[in-house]
């Protein structure tokens, strides 16, 4: 009898079925190809078309940029029988493209500044120091770098009209980003403030700046502002342009951050205040970290856009990277190398922008909750 | 007001715009009392307990909590919030902080406790709600029941005299309701003063000292739980009970 009940119990113990291997067509390389490239007739057609397109374009591109190109360093233009790119042109113009007309005897100063900049970038990318410290580093970074490049206190002053090239572009963009993120956050918080005066001031500022193209702001800063300034007061052109860029970028970042602030559920604020936390503590420790986390992709997008927008300073007479590319391409001794110049320009812009967006992605991955 | 009274609400009125949510509420809570508020949705029960720590502002009447009257004064509000802990329906843990950081945030910033001391207290409380093994996880990695228990521990970190529960189990899967209710029962057993809005009538019957039934912004009936469930005074209460039991 007991035997029987045991057997009966045995029969009624739940045992999950063993896992079966997936059919071969759905896994591995074949599975991937089938699912992603040849899942339907249209998809197959698109795949084939894309392959043909790549086959037609990639080899000539490679031979022009690498195989048939002239890679020698000389002060003479390339031999005309070569069909590829003439990178000699870039080598010769390299210093101007990077630093503008910065005097040769002080070259070590921007190079040192660049080294420091790269070091801080590396600290950032590899997360070698605490986030708080890192933010402080970035915030104070412009000061020593500006001192190195500009001179003063023992170092000879270098006229700002001589600055240019990629140094100017990254400088304007970096300071623009560093300054406009905190200002943008303050504007966004102000826009949601209960104090009507603060709120309307912030809305007024954000909306009036966002309603105007950057070119106009740069023109205003460069041409109109001196007219309104009192006699004898003189702010140099570069600083005016930098302020214009910061204002422009702050307004956009404010709107991005506001989007993040709106995504925070009211319950978070209620929970924090029920614990007795003060309003500014709630904003600083509960609301802002979450809001910024939500908007990392668009914030990085703004930074990338700002870096590219700095190329507009050419219209107020500053020779940034793109400006230097253009000027070099028009050098009478080196005529006919526009393509090389602009390809190089695009490549550098792409590397920097792509790195920024990759860094943005890595922050997102790193901070997942 | 005798020594034993910890919350005194007199002639409380509140409007949302033109909508009169709380109508002339009078209620007294004594130390160690466990009050369960129930009623149909929209009856103002959540709003009432949210007024007690001034997450909602009342427009008329008087609320005195632990000897402090709730007015617009920031100092009074801060004092009251120190004494009152609150647990919400949707847990509302801070998702960007670990469970331990969620618990230590307020002691560190308000009581100016050292980080070490705050963490010690937090770990003791996590042990009390039986999730000390989850201390270093993010809230998103916990189950609903664990999150709600962490939220209770977070409120307890400030060592409150009164705990408010706003439908603490409504957002939970059925199998997790019990673990949260057990924690609340334990608290009740330890003598905490509690006001709990809930639809868990079995739980209410077990722990409550007093049942409060609200409808359309008014307190319809206050009664001893045994009488409340078996022999309510008002037909409105009876109707409600017959709908949910």
Keywords:
heterodimer; A: 369 residues; mainly alpha; 16 helices; B: 245 residues; alpha/beta; 6-stranded mixed β-sheet; 4-stranded antiparallel β-sheet; 10 strands; globular
Helices and strands in order:
The complex is a heterodimer of chains A (about 375) and B (about 240).
Chain A: H1 2-11, H2 28-36, H3 41-67, H4 88-99, H5 108-125, H6 131-140, H7 142-150, H8 165-191, H9 196-210, H10 214-228, H11 237-262, H12 266-274, H13 279-294, H14 296-309, H15 321-329, H16 338-366
Helix pairs in contact in A: 4-8, 4-15, 5-7, 8-9, 8-11, 8-14, 8-15, 9-11, 10-11, 11-13, 11-14, 12-13, 14-16, 15-16
Chain B: E1 5-16, E2 19-30, E3 34-38, H1 45-52, E4 60-65, E5 68-69, H2 74-83, E6 84-87, H3 99-109, H4 115-128, H5 144-156, E7 162-166, H6 174-189, E8 193-197, H7 201-207, E9 210-215, E10 218-223, H8 225-230, H9 235-244
Parallel strand pairs in B: 3-8, 3-9, 6-7, 7-8
Antiparallel strand pairs in B: 1-2, 1-4, 4-5, 9-10
Helix pairs in contact in B: 3-4, 3-5, 4-5, 5-6
Assembly status: heterodimer
What are the low-pLDDT stretches of chain B, counting only 5+ consecutive residues below 50? none
Helix percent of chain A reads 55-70%
Number of helices of chain B: 9
Most strands sheet of chain B? 6 strands, mixed
Low-pLDDT segments, ≥5 res of chain A: none
**Total strand count of chain A, please?**
0
Number of alpha- plus pi-helical segments of chain A: 16
β-strand amount of chain A:
under 5%
- Tell me the major beta sheet of chain A: none
Distance from N terminus to C terminus of chain A (CA atoms, Å) equals 57 Å
Mean pLDDT of chain B: 93
**Dominant shape of chain A:** extended
Q: Using only CA atoms, what is the Rg of chain B?
A: 18 Å
> How large is the share of residues in beta strands of chain B?
25-35%
Global structural class of chain B: alpha/beta
What is the H/E string of chain B? EEEHEEHEHHHEHEHEEHH
The coarse overall form of chain B would be globular
Order of helices and strands of chain A: HHHHHHHHHHHHHHHH
| Separation of the first and last Cα atoms of chain B | 36 Å
- Give the averaged pLDDT of chain A, no decimals: 89
